[in-house]
Amino acid sequence: MNFSEEQLERYSRHIILAEVGVKGQEKIMQAKVLIIGVGGLGSPAALYLAAAGCGTIGLVDGDCVEVSNLQRQVIHFTPDIGKPKVISAKEKIEKINPEVKVNTYKERVFARNITDIIKDYDFIIDGTDNFPAKFLINDACVFSKKPFSHGGILKFDGQTMTYLPKISACYRCVFGTLPPKGAVPSCSQAGILGAIAGMLGTIQAAEALKYFVQKGELLTNRLLIFDALNMNFRTVKVRKNPECPVCGDKPTITKLIDQEQPACDLRKK
Question: What values do phi and psi take at 157, rounded to 5?
């Protein structure tokens, strides 16, 4: 790939990094990332991936911008209220970096459509706010052999891990099944400090970029947990479960299904 003078200047802070360089930036510019959920987590992830020069960014979200979103979903502005989130986000990405190709999917993911949506992407970012979507994304990525970043936030807390097909623990290895109804409050019930979404979504973007340049250690077989109220970070070691119902030695989940569950954004382990 021949870089233009503008590209060399735009990505100069990447290129001078020994861990990235020209070859690493080329990989980023050829990468295809799908962000499912253009809200608190998807917003900062999309902004940083666009700024980094990620070649193609897919945006999946069926909602429109609401005034309550603006406290944490930083890719959306006040004039965007009422606009589909995927369109609002696409407009900002194109202003940050016109070279990035943006695909929009104004819909939610279900068992019937998720496989077709994720098939053309190299890395998936889970920015959803409900357990059924998180388990569905996990199962679809396991079946389709797609790496993905899980993220969850609530109040002052965040958690994230990265999955690599056949290599590391998946979301079900760690959490098993959906929590009982009403066991965990939603963000609309418990609240969320807006900056927490930025902290977590930015980590997810960093994981995607590290995956493409193949440098550093990904959050595989590790669950990163932080409490921003006291600014404590810790990592919990997890491992691939041979009895996991979706990625284990004898899987019992062999097809995608839609499950019902009240919305919420973080399950503590």
Answer: -110, 155
Dihedral (CA of 13, 18, 23, 25) sign:
negative
In a domain, 135, yes or no: yes
Count of the separate structural domains present in the chain: 1
Q: How far apart are CA 162 and CA 169, in angstroms?
A: 9
Instruction: Classify residue 13 by burial, with Cβ atoms within 10 Å: 0-12, 13-18, 19+.
Output: exposed
- Indicate which CATH number applies to the domain containing 60: 3.40.50.720
**Residue 56: beta bridge partners?**
32, 101
The SS3 assignment for 172 reads: helix
pLDDT in tens, 156-176: 999 999 999 999 999 999 999
Candidates 1, 58, 51; CA nearest to 26 is 1
Q: Show the tokens assigned to 104.
A: 């929009």
Tens digit of each residue's pLDDT (9 = 90 or more) over 231-254: 999 999 999 999 999 999 999 999
Q: Which domain holds residue 87?
A: 31-237
